[in-house]
Write a structure and sequence with these properties.
The protein is α/β, with parallel strands linked by helices. It has a single domain, classed as Rossmann fold (3-Layer(aba) Sandwich), CATH 3.40.50. 30% of the residues lie in helices and 19% in strands. The strands form two sheets. A seven-stranded parallel β-sheet has the order 1-10-9-6-2-3-5, with helices on both faces. It has a three-stranded antiparallel β-sheet with strand order 4-8-7. α1 (18-40) crosses α2. The two termini are 26 Å apart.
């Protein structure tokens, strides 16, 4: 449970508004990338899509001194759609990093059509080639406490949450499918997301803060998948970024 000697203790960062949150998250990620490049000659990051973290990535591109040719990124999850589809997370990430020449973005889906089964195999192959811990993982959270595409009620959720699962990524079919994005998903598994030096959760609004606080207090990852961050290893730094 959060606060246990066997798990990481999350640190809260509160901001006046969403713009200030974007600045704070961008600064944190810039430090991660710079430190990782200095220590290991490359940075390896997993990034959530969504309205809250995307502005931070745009600011991150303006951070001085980062050799983007030494940064590899992957989305934490992806909708099973072609890369040119408006719902594609990878497309959105690449748009934010358009001013970061050399940045590599690994695909989680087949670019031409997003076919789910082929995409699941592709994602596993891509991630198996980079088994080292992430330098940073950025997560968002939905009002139902899902994170990445770990949706409560999804038939594949138990496998995706199982700490013994050695798969890096897995197909998930939310039930019901969200009307705004009615697609199967490929998501990093909980064990893969938690294999990281730092985890950053970004969210806005009093309602979502309440959901996150209840999730962490319950430690029930099946009902509240975002609670996985409370199970990170004690040497993983977990940061919770929140603004009204």
């Amino acid at each position: 449970m959060p606060g246990s000697t066997n798990t990481a203790v999350p640190t809260w960062h509160e901001y006046a508004d969403a713009d200030a949150l974007a600045v704070g998250l961008a600064d944190a990620l810039a430090c991660v990338c710079s430190d990782a490049i200095g220590a290991r000659s490359m940075a390896w990051i997993a990034l959530a899509g969504g309205r809250t973290p995307l502005p931070a990535y745009a600011r991150l591109t303006r951070a001085p001194g980062i050799d983007w040719g030494r940064v590899v990124a992957v989305a934490t999850d992806e909708r099973c759609v072609p890369f040119d589809h408006p719902a594609c997370n990878t497309r959105a990430l690449m748009a934010q990093f358009v001013d970061s020449p050399g940045l590599s973005v690994l695909p989680l889906t087949r670019p031409s059509d997003g076919e789910p089964d082929a995409s699941e195999l592709l994602a596993q192959r891509e991630l198996n080639s980079r088994a080292q811990p992430f330098d940073a993982v950025v997560l968002g959270m939905g009002g139902d406490a899902h994170t990445a595409s770990l949706f409560p009620g999804a038939p594949q959720l138990a496998g995706a949450l199982d700490p013994r699962n050695t798969l890096e990524a897995i197909r998930v079919d939310p039930m019901p499918l969200p009307p705004e994005a009615p697609f199967p998903r490929i998501t990093l598994t909980a064990s893969r997301l938690l294999r990281a030096h730092e985890i950053h959760v970004a969210l806005t609004g009093a309602d979502k803060r309440g959901v996150l606080e209840r999730a962490l207090a319950s430690n029930d990852v099946t009902a509240h998948p975002i609670a996985i961050v409370g199970r990170a290893a004690p040497d993983t730094r977990v940061h919770l970024h929140w603004s009204p």
